[in-house]
Amino acid sequence: xxxxxxxxxxxxxxxxxxxxxxxxxxxxxxxxxxxxxxxxxxxxxxxxxxxxxxxxxxxxxxxxxxxxxxxxxxxxxxxxxxxxxxxxxxxxxxxxxxxxxxxxxxxxxxxxxxxxxxxxxxxxxxxxxxxxxxxxxxxxxxxxxxxxxxxxxxxxxxxxxxxxxxxxxxxxxxxxxxxxxxxxxxxxxxxxxxxxxxxxxxxxxxxxxxxxxxxxxxxxxxxxxxxxxxxxxxxxxxxxxxxxxxxxxxxxxxxxxxxxxxxxx
Length: 265
Ligand SMILES: Nc1ncnc2c1ncn2[C@@H]1O[C@H](COP(=O)(O)OP(=O)(O)O)[C@@H](O)[C@H]1O
Ligand SMILES: [Mg+2]
Known about the structure:
The longest helix has 17 residues, at 170-186. Helix content is 33%, strand content 25%. It is built from seven helices and ten strands. A hairpin with a 2-residue loop joins strand 4 and strand 5. It is an alpha/beta fold. The strands form two sheets. Strands 6-7-8-3-9-10 form a six-stranded mixed β-sheet, sandwiched between helices. The chain is globular and about 55 Å long. It binds adenosine-5'-diphosphate (ADP) and magnesium ion. Adenosine-5'-diphosphate binds at residues 14, 16, 21, 23, 43-49.
């Protein structure tokens, strides 16, 4: 299978007042079409930097980022993004917020088709009936659902989620995990999820990439075997407990709190 996302030997440093700050060094990540990869790693190791490179918002100092067989050279509409803070515009309705990306990057859809698509996406995430509300009238979880619809409006090939559920309470977060699975069934995409929640990483993704401390390289890759549709009960099986143990240990290595001899090359 051709990989939709290829990150090869990526190295990047930020120029700061106190000299260069190496953030990524020898990063390797491949995501097949329709795959879903979670990326976990210590705080400040370069995860958000990685998302900006995939989205074409930044160029790496060295190495290559490829999307669908094309080298990434700039931003493109085929990449959708959602963040921890949904940044919805308060003076626009939820429907108009979801439609916003189509005003920035034109679409082939007519106005009517675009609105139909936005309404469909909102119903898919359980926001039917909230189309005309303002962002402040919605709960945090609902705003995150709306932000997800906005990221999907262009039917992106790649959906990048940078800690989108990080600010939500545990139950709301779990509801959104289920929504993510429902969305992916109806609106297939190739996903990259940045998270610090290890349960979330195995519940949503089919592969978990652990990054080392800064400068980050790919330290460990865990394949999450699929057993049909997922339910929250799957997180309480012996298999899940073992996967979580492996990941927790790898995070300790990445943080320098455990010796590195068990890290995978
Ligand atoms: N534009 C920037 N200029 C200088 N340093 C930055 C910039 N963006 C991020 N950094 C630094 O680079 C490191 C990695 O940042 P980031 O990719 O946001 O990490 P993460 O998302 O893993 O927490 C951090 O130490 C951060 O302070
Ligand atoms: Mg970040």
